[in-house]
Amino acid sequence: MRMHILCGGRIRMKKSTYLRDADRSEMIELPVSCALLRHPQGNVLFDTGCHPSIADDPEQRWGVLTKFMLPIMTRDDNVISDLRAVGLVPDDIDVVVCSHLHTDHCGCNAFFSKATVIIHALELEAANAPDVARIGYLREDWDHPMPMTTISKQTDVMGDGRIILVPLPGHTPGTTGVLIALDRSGKFLLASDALSIRENLDREIIPRNTWNAELCARSFDEIRKLEASGFKVICGHDAAQWEQLRKRRKAYD
After folding, report:
1. Which among 48, 138, 228, 251 has most CB atoms closer than 10 A?
2. Burial letters for 116-154: b for 16+ Cβ neighbours within 10 Å, e otherwise?
């Protein structure tokens, strides 16, 4: 199996959203990390990032969210373009795993019409609640006719221990990470927004954009345990880490 780290866009937010002691006027630039897992049984995409249209007109799709989260991306900074760079098109994807259903993580779901989508049941419930667009859930991102499978616990996607979904709630009710086992590159945890930036874990800071602080702290503890057992943690939005990762054609295997 091989893992390609893909770009799902770039956004700018207040730094104090993540680091509470930061000046409220200071901004932070955040890459959106996604991953393609080329498994012998099929191609799995973990998160689909931001919709390409927000590069040109973010307010049309995101509306009031642009007051808190501003895209700083070109039309090529998206999962579709990065898949093309590794020789694939959306129809080549068999499974889309949604870490959660915030718009910067599932904005391109509609392009993967031949895939089965996997999402935690509590996340789907949260996205179906009333008046949730203001907190990042946009129905046009995730409500599509392709098959959808819900999970409620740790789940082995292919049945061979190489791609295991692990619930890491806190950021949202159903935030889910994925444990990856590669032959040569070793073990990885793709944490998505269970750990958006590394400094939150290192300094034990719960971000402001957290649904449940207690569950977030427990997920931080679980991430620490996984890291101690040998998993390399890839954050959802860490700019410094992003620069060090192999990306697109430079795969981990």
Report:
1. 48
2. bbbbbebbbebbeeeeeeeebbbeebbebeeebeebeee
